[in-house]
Amino acid sequence: MKRLIFLFALVPALLWGRVPLRVVSHTVGTDDLLLAVADPGQIAALSRFSRDPRYSIHARENEKHPTVRDAEAESILRHKPDLVLITSYSKPEVVELLRRSKVNLMLFDHFESLEDAYANLRRLGQTLGHPERAEAVIQRSQARVAELQKRLAGVKPVRVMAAGIYPFVAGAGTTFDDLCLHAGAINVVAQAGVKGHQPMPTEKVLTWNPDVLVGAKDEDLPTILPKTPPYKYLPAMKYGRLVLIPRALFSNTTHLRIEGYEWLARALHPERFR
Questions:
Q1: Could you tell me the CATH superfamily of domain 2-141?
Q2: Using CA atoms, how far apart are residues 211 and 184, in angstroms rounded to an integer?
């Protein structure tokens, strides 16, 4: 199925000979990409969460654009798109209905690292006829990352672990691990050899013993985690070493994740930002 979707993702580049004029974004991540490189007139609609500050960094600015009512195919098609931006986590049944409608699809299925984000920007910029905009965004992003790394040069990395209401851990090859790599932190789950998102190994978490727990702000974690194993047994929880990041930054899949790098770096290494 994924291979078939990938082939449909190539349709704009291979067949059109013209740039899309009406683009609909299916997810917050593709909203961010679209807003970074598109002409305003090319944006037919953003995702249903584009105006929700819990999920979108630029929620207020996004109010100027139409949004889809929900994530279903019918809501997308009512905007008469000539291109729909989807991801590997878009609902398969929605993707199948869109495919049957003959609308062109562009799939984004790699977003674990900043280099993935840059590649996604370049793909979309090329398709929309604005490759120079993508390169400008990338150059600004690279400069911002370089400045952050300069600030963090020589710091002792803090051992951290992602904490949340769901019983999973985030290992190597995740957006959380990427966040740690750029913020002066060591993801103890990745350090233990875990890859991707895996079910919570309760006893192992106790041996990993992170110095700091990191979670999303909107989950009321200060109330939930002290009552939830294995977190309630960890010294980090006992001594209140919990860093909360806005969800829109904590789970960002695009170039805007750099704001998350900066947020976590400031929390872990405040002395470098005085």
A1: Nitrogenase molybdenum iron protein domain (3.40.50.1980)
A2: 13
Distance CA(28)–CA(132), nearest Å, equals 23
Please state, in angstroms and rounded to a whole number, the distance separating the CA atoms of residues 65 and 44: 8
Same fold for the domain at 2-141 and the one at 154-273?
A: yes
Structure confidence at residue 15 (pLDDT): 43
Contact 243/270 with Cβ under 8 angstroms? no
Could you state, in order of their start, the residue ranges of all structural domains in the chain? 2-141, 154-273
CATH architecture of 154-273: 3-Layer(aba) Sandwich (3.40)
Q: What are phi and psi of 156, to 5 degrees?
A: -85, 120
| pLDDT (tens digit per residue) in 34-54 | 999 999 999 999 999 999 999
Per DSSP, the residues of 141-175 read HHHHHHHHHHHHTTPPPEEEEE--SSSEEE-BTSH
Q: Give the 3-state secondary structure percentages of the chain, helix then strand then coil, rounded to 5.
A: 50, 15, 35
Find where tokens 């007139």 sit: 41
Residue with tokens 């710091």: 155
Q: CA 192, CA 163: separation in Å to the nearest integer?
A: 16
Residues of the chain with pLDDT under 50: 1-10, 13-15
Q: Looking at the chain, how many residues does it have?
A: 274
Q: Quick one: 59 exposed, middle or buried, by C-beta within 10 A (0-12, 13-18, 19+)?
A: middle
